[in-house]
Amino acid sequence: LQPVLSMLPATSCTLSFADSLYVSEYFSQSAQKLSFYSWYGNAKLFHFHVPEDTILLRWLLQASRGKGPECTDMEVTVHFRYGAPPVINPLGTRFPANATVRPSYNISIALSGAAQNTTFVNITTPAAGHWFIAAHLPEAAGRIEVKGFSIPCPYIFQADMFVLRLTDMPVLEPGVTMPQTIVSPAKPLHAKVFVPKHAAGMRLELRSCVTSERKACTVRVVLGSITLPQSFQRIVTCVGNVTCSLALDSPPWEKWLQIMVESLGAANGSVSLMMVASFTACRPGSSSSFLSFLSPNQSQTSPRPGSAVAAGSSAVPAGEASRNVSKQRSFCLQTQPVVREDLDVVSVRYRLLNGPSVPVGSLSPTLLLLNLNTGMDSGGSLVVSLLLNKTSLSLANATVAACVSAASPVLSLNATQNCSTAFFQGYPLSVGTSSAEAMLIVLYPQTDVWFLSLQLLCPKGQGECKATEAKVTVFAYLTPCFNDCGPYGQCSLLRRHGYLYAGCSCKAGWGGWSCTDDTKAQSVGVQNLATLLLTLSNLMFLPAITVAVHRCYLVEASVYTYTMFFSTFYHACDQPGVAVMCIMDYDTLQYCDFLGSVVSIWVTILCMSRVKKIQKYVLFILGTLLIAMSLQLDRRGVWNMMGPCLFALVIMIAAWVHHGVKRKHCYPPSWKRWVFYLLPGITLAFIAISVYAFMETNENYYYTHSIWHVLVACSVAFLLPPRDKHKKPWAWSQKLTCRYQICQNDREELYAVT
């Protein structure tokens, strides 16, 4: 059983057509909100499981958008793939070297006139197993939006699956002739046959095909199921009552193979025929076994049955080589035992029992089995690396050909072989004396049993290298992200219900599947410049700190110092490139930076209100505690900054009105204070908010945010009120050295020109 927690059958019904029993089932998943695409994590994944004997699959795709004015015409791209999540590249970036990329099958759903679009996708005779759908919006604009300033339009996508399954599908036994009847062209014949392990070939024959009127029939035979993005169904048209056959090389091992026969004759005529399937067996030879590995009396370095010498040895005695040649002639392949070692989530290492060195001959391929059929292995990258031991190869022109395939191995490797099996196009590799290393990266390998076939090839024919054996070191492993996304990327583990998969989030302008595309990458000089701008721009708080200390606002100066310190080191740690320095945990630095920024605005506006000291300090402490709580709840919410600012402005305006009414004069009374301090400070503050909320993008962040630092710090220096009239400049420093105090009237100032 393959458990799929995200898929629950909602309904099921049974239909009967002409002695065939059909069951229709409906599977649904919850809708997801779509995102604009910048990396694979923005694509919304849907995971379904198609049951066996399904003859018709129908996807119901529903895309909708909101009704607000912010919602515009949009195009939703939907990708399909069998066995693994789709490998997509909407941005047109480069993939890592040695990676195999096959474009996914995709369709586009337009949301232009109507607010909802419903699309159907039909697939006849789909392959049973895991199917994946990924949906996303076009490329992201790169603009940094402050949460709360703008309302994004919601785009919703939902995928439902309908299947029509045949419950009594006839089973074709190998070597047994089975009579069948096609009732009408509208009702094709469906059957299935089980492919045993070690099947080298399969042959399907149709005999004695006649219509109900005893005339020669015309039928079409479809062998295999549809898989996306590539389908390798075999189709043949049979005319007349002569024997019609269809042969397959390397059919998928230990799987059911669907057969569909449909009549191409008259609409009301039935067709009778005989079907028979036969298999060609492949006799495997093993170089070792798990029993020898578990035996305490046998070392892994001892000679292995059926191989030339022990792993690591390069010399092959002539007598032993001749004995190996005679053994290889009786086998169609040589298997090497492989142990699957699970390391972590989507992380597997394959270990050869006889060591990493594998003997490769010319008469039959050497086969390694890589098990990836747990259902949770398709969300990473399969890496296969080959290294040829040049000293083991006596022929200079000989090469070792390799092929990585799923479901069944390639049993014959030669110069004209295109590394393909009956229903899968494999991935070729080769190593030789001129190029001793080769690597293959399979992105999101489909859920199946994978095989690595290796065989020695000689330019003058296989007879030239009968007694020659090459040693190839094989490294195979499954990793969430190849090379851990490199120095300019972060490997993120993504989840859709119970299914886990990985993707790379790139930084510093780098792109691509594994963050290896440097087309738009920032140079090291630009990265250093960005770090210097974002950190050193915080030094503009020094004038504000100096003004606050000069005017005896020590609490305010302390807050500005706190903000300057943590903003500097937060941005030094937040850099995407190599110019990074973190003095403590990133989350702590970010929280302290956000807290200091909001509290700085809070204490500045309260200081401008000129309320009584006891009231001011109570508001300082109470406001700081509330701000700390709100930032813990939602750190990037706009009201965490706007709320304290508006509340402090209300207090300031009320205090100014109170002072003006009490004095019967406008407050502050001096026009110079308005013209040279308040208006410039307010202007700088409004410009800073505009830059922060509407101008920042991923590309210009390092200088627009630096401008935000400068404008905010300068506005604070302008907005701080003058000192109390009875206090002297730098009066706080005199208290550090004075041993006695002179009592003075420190009542609340009501007459100073402010």
Automatic annotation (TrEMBL):
Pfam families: DUF3522 (PF12036). Keywords: Cell membrane, Disulfide bond, EGF-like domain, Membrane, Transmembrane, Transmembrane helix. The chain crosses the membrane at residues 617-633, 639-658, 674-695, 701-720. It is a multi-pass membrane protein. GO terms for cellular component: plasma membrane. InterPro entries: EGF, NGX6/PGAP6/MYMK. Residues 477-516 form the EGF-like domain. It is found in: Cell membrane. Disulfide bonds join C481-C491, C506-C515. Belongs to the TMEM8 family. This is TMM8A factor. It comes from Eubucco bourcierii.
